[in-house]
Amino acid sequence: MDRLNYQHLYYFWMVAKGGSIKSACETLNLAQPTISGQLARFEKAIGSKLFKREGRKLVLTENGWLVFNYADEIFSIGHELTKWLKGASPEQSRNLKVGVCDSVDRSVALQLLSRALNAKHPPTLCCASSDAERLLQDLRLRACDLAILTAPPACSDHNSTCSHLLATLEISLFGPAAKVKSHSKDFPQSLHRAPVVLPIQKSPLRQSLDHWLETQGIEPDIKSEIGDSELRKSVAASCDALTFAPTDARQQVRQRYGLEVIGAIHGVEERIYAVTAQRKIRNSAIAQIIGGVDAR
């Protein structure tokens, strides 16, 4: 295909948005055979099925999702251009789709996102939380503009993504106020046999903590292993256990979960990365979050 037919792309986009050919026909005031025929020509031109039928519903295929998210970005920017030609600032209507890994502390994520939200023309933020694998898949399918992760993608993703180190966080041990005094004494050896809630084993933070515990000769009583950072703190508070979180989040951890800092874990850090897709369309809100950090 030498040139993309944007009329066909637009019809496909309207069918995908509405969930059916009938919905697109009603919106566009066109006959169903017209939309069906144009959609069939578009699929033939690109050499890929974009929909599959599940019962009476049309469901996007994986390629369909990729095309849809490109189309969504293309026509959203076209809408911005129209507004700009009428005198409005395009910056005021730019959307920012962000995926935050569930292992990232929410107060840290908010602090990073505030770089864009506090700008003169803040974006319309659409934010979702999931595991790193799903967020990288969303990046590949253009379902999100930016993923905030605790580790850069694997080498296999380097050709399709770009990683930026946003922050390096000191980690501290937190616990209920009643346990602070007893565990602060003789810290960190006071952690031996103490009840703890840890991150899941495959996470970078867990790997660093396991190494630190081993070098200190500490064997805690592991009560739970939880990937979600907020659920981990909530479980620790509910079962009167200890857990680990960024030191900078101590105010939010105290207010929300009633957990206090017992001591800093020297030598253990958590790195936060912004991961973007390698794309030509630029979003100024992403640049505000990344700032002047180098791509990796």
Automatic annotation (TrEMBL):
Cross-referenced Gene3D superfamilies: 3.40.190.290, Winged helix-like DNA-binding domain superfamily/Winged helix DNA-binding domain
Q: Tell me if Transcription is a UniProt keyword of this record.
A: yes
Q: Which residues cross the membrane?
A: none
- What Pfam families has UniProt attached to this entry? HTH_1, LysR_substrate
Domain HTH lysR-type residues, every copy: 4-61
Q: Which UniProt keywords apply?
A: Activator, DNA-binding, Transcription, Transcription regulation
State the family named in the UniProt similarity comment for this chain: Belongs to the LysR transcriptional regulatory family.
Question: What is the name of this protein?
Answer: LysR family transcriptional regulator
Source organism (scientific name): Methylocystis rosea
